[in-house]
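Lab notebook, bench 4. The sequencing result for the construct came back, and we need a structural model before the next group meeting so we can plan mutations. Quick request posted to the team channel:

Model the 3D structure of this chain.
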Amino acid sequence: MDLACSIAPPAMALAVLLALAIDRLWGEPPAAWHPVVWMGRYLGAAGKLVAPPAPVHGAAAARTFILGALAWSAGALLAALAALAACALLAPLHWSAQALAMGFLLKPLLAWRMLHAEVKAVEDALGDSLAAGRARLAWLVSRDVAALDAGQVRESAIESLAENLNDSVIAPLFWFAVAGLPGAALYRFANTADAMWGYRGMRQGRHWTWAGKWAARADDVLCWAPARLTAVLLCLAGKAGGLRRVAAEARLTPSPNSGWPMAAMALQLDIRLGKPDVYTLHAAGRCPAADDTAQALRIASRAVSALAWAALAAFIAAVIIQGARG
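Done. Here's the predicted structure in token form:
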């Protein structure tokens, strides 16, 4: 049995279109039925067991790392097995029924409508006041927003848009294409684990340097290809080209992946993006203005639309091939 569990190719492609349509029409499902919420609850409970309340060294650090890796692996296995079980139940159905069910199962593993709304909400809040913009940005990012000026608030929002376009849309669909629903579920677990565990030092009363190291590295591995794909899509969706410069700019960030979509967005908009005292992307660019947030959302929307068109083309091709085979 392969990871796609004998789901027909037309169903796989159509499921992507349905998931994007469901996301656009209805957004996120209730928390009680949201698999990412379930993942977060598991990670929250497991994190209290694996992350120590103070720094550890030597043998204690090694034990903490192993515990974190084992807890991560157990959660990842549960997520993948649940997706495999769902696929197995769908396998006997006609591909049209498979597609419908798969679309509803895939949707919670991606979140484009919510990301678009949150970034727009930051710009809308900035229109009221700097304090309101900072407060709204705090919903979107983990960094300290208290000292940010209006331009830096926009920088952070646009950076978050570019980074989360990969994390919340492109990467889940990439892994769905590679390994079906189990691939998307495994990726979403890894990304959620990185968001909750992938820190150095203290956070919320726990020390994560060793406890979260496996989670951070696993997310780096799974995001490597999607992050570069996201950068390509953003460059194609914009008008400035700049693909050759993206790699050089991306290397300026500490992350091996997040710099790619952020650098692509900075070059497309000809703006400067950065995190104070950490990195600056496209340093020659101007400070973002209100119109840049709207333009960033348009570019990201075009990148998502490109994926939808690709899924439609794959669906048509799969139907033709399946019809030819009888």
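The longest strand covers residues 273-275.
Will bring this to the meeting.
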